[in-house]
From TrEMBL:
Cofactor: pyridoxal 5'-phosphate
Gene3D superfamilies recorded: Alanine racemase (3.20.20.10), Lyase, Ornithine Decarboxylase, Chain A, domain 1 (2.40.37.10)
Family according to the record: Belongs to the Orn/Lys/Arg decarboxylase class-II family.
Domain Orn/DAP/Arg decarboxylase 2 N-terminal stretches: 28-261
Catalytic reaction(s) noted: L-ornithine + H(+) = putrescine + CO2
Molecular functions (GO terms): ornithine decarboxylase activity
Post-translational modification N6-(pyridoxal phosphate)lysine, affected residues: 49
Record protein name field: ornithine decarboxylase
Gene Ontology CC terms, in alphabetical order: cytoplasm
Gene Ontology biological process: putrescine biosynthetic process from arginine, via ornithine
EC number(s) per entry: 4.1.1.17
Pathway membership: Amine and polyamine biosynthesis; putrescine biosynthesis via L-ornithine pathway; putrescine from L-ornithine: step 1/1
Length: 378
């Protein structure tokens, strides 16, 4: 992303104490409009977990967004925007039965599951609700692959949807997730093919006609490497839907998170310490006042590589970047090559770009006494 005039002006004029996140809501809106245009026949369910700030949710609700929620507090946050409960999908496949009941009481009627036990909980706590089963995908090509924690095999999904038809719920659809920060639009094809095959098997062998396919998330933000435009994802996905579903394309929903808010945010941080530590490659250690526990959890295994800028110029050398806490895991980038100006000094500010997603929501509460990451919206 390029820092917008609004963000530049805020950082220069307001200049809050670091670290903090500032989000440009106009970029959030532009990203939503681009994806909605790329997927014109899909309903967008913003993944609230990516950035649950009321400012973000209200802007998206005003644009007509629906919401993918993972907990009762997220249900309440989404409803506080004024949207109808029918615009919510409880997409977490791991829910307490009392939370299912509470969401149902609040009007939620669409629930995800991927196991027999979860399906039975929904049947007991939300009779009459629509359910969709999440299937496993490879996650190949994603920078933040999702583990086998979520989803089941297509064969198991077939049996679970047959069971759903015998319970007081409505077997409604199939969902999947091709991995977060998915830079290959073609990765949706195999998942769409699996979903379409399940649709046909259930109709032909069990008389169950499903109505919805959930494309999940995976739509990327712009970090250090280039990503295709939203239009490329839309074209690839609709080509897959046409080829695998033919003339019977069901209702389609998508659950973007970082793709809407990632590019919209910048964290401004301060250099706390620059130290020579005898690194074999001669690299300096640059310690910032924000790290893994302050909102940059996605630097785990250096999976998400944020662009980092400073106002210093001149020659630059490879460095190791770390956070401020007394935890040896709080190292941001050691394997990936990050160059920082040789003139960088303690007390300088740096800008960590494309940090609008999964930063405030991952920020620890007072670990080592550091306050959670503060956020501003412009």
């Amino acid at each position: 992303m390029t820092t917008t005039t609004k963000l530049d002006r805020f950082m220069q004029d307001v200049r809050p104490a670091t670290p903090y996140l500032v989000v440009d809501l106009d970029i959030v809106e532009a990203n939503y409009r681009a994806l909605a245009e790329a997927l014109p026949d899909a309903r967008i369910y913003y993944a609230v977990k990516a950035n649950p700030a009321p400012e973000v949710l209200h802007r998206l609700a005003a644009l007509g967004s629906s919401f993918d929620v993972a907990s009762v507090p997220e249900v309440e946050l989404a409803l506080a925007t004024g949207v109808n409960p029918s615009s919510l999908s409880f997409g977490n496949t791991i829910k307490k039965e009392r939370d299912i009941a509470r969401a149902f009481e609040l009007g939620v009627r669409l629930f995800a599951f991927d196991s027999e036990a979860e399906l039975l909980k929904i049947a007991r706590a939300a009779p009459g609700a629509k359910v969709f089963c999440r299937i496993l995908t490879s996650g190949e090509g994603a920078e933040w692959p999702l583990s086998k924690k979520f989803g089941c095999t297509p064969d198991m999904a077939f049996e679970l949807m047959k069971m759903a038809a015998t319970l007081p719920v409505v077997p409604h659809g199939i969902s999947f997730h091709v991995g977060s920060q998915q830079r290959d639009p073609g990765q949706w094809d195999a998942a769409v093919a699996s979903a379409a095959l399940l649709f046909r098997r259930l109709e032909e062998k069990a008389g169950i006609e499903l109505k919805m396919v959930n494309l999940g998330g995976g739509f990327p933000a712009l970090y250090r490497e280039a990503v295709p435009a939203a239009a490329a994802y839309g074209a690839a996905i609709w080509d897959s839907l046409r080829r695998h579903f033919g003339n019977r394309i069901p209702a389609v929903i998508a659950e973007p998170g970082r793709g809407l808010v990632g590019d919209a945010g910048v964290i401004e941080a301060e250099v706390v310490l620059i130290a020579e530590k005898g690194d074999a490659a001669g690299r300096r250690w640059i310690y910032l006042d924000v790290g893994k526990f302050g909102g940059l959890a996605e630097t785990m295994d250096e999976a998400i590589r944020y662009p980092i800028e400073t106002d210093r110029d001149g020659t630059a050398s490879p460095v190791i970047l770390a956070g401020p806490t007394c935890d040896s895991a709080d190292v941001l980038y050691e394997k990936n090559a990050y160059l920082m100006p040789d003139s960088l000094a303690i007390g300088d500010r740096v800008r960590i770009k494309s940090t609008g997603a999964y930063t405030t929501s991952y920020s620890a509460v007072n670990f080592n006494g550091f306050e959670p990451l503060r956020a501003y919206f412009v």
